[in-house]
Amino acid sequence: MTLISEDVNYYAHQYNSSDRDKKIITILDSTLREGEQHPGISFTTKQRIQIAWMLDSFGVDQIEISPVISGDHLLSTKTIIKQGLRADILAHVRATKSDVDVAISCGATWIATYMGISDVHLSAKLKITREEAKIRALEVADYIKAHGLKARFTMEDASRTEPEFLTEMCREMNARGIERISIPDTVGIMRPRGMFNLVKMVYEAIDPSRTSLDVHCHNDIGLALANGLAGCEAGANQIHTTIDGFGERTGIPSLAEVAVALTLIYKSTNRLKLYMLKDLSKTVSQYTNLGIPESRPIVGDSAYKHKAGTHLAAILRNPSAYEILEPKTVGNRRKIVFGELAGKNGAAYLLSLLGLQTDEHEAETLARGMKDLRMGDILELYLDDRLERKILNDASPGIGRKK
Ligand code: HCA
Ligand code: CU
Question: Domain range holding 196?
Answer without folding.
Answer: 22-288
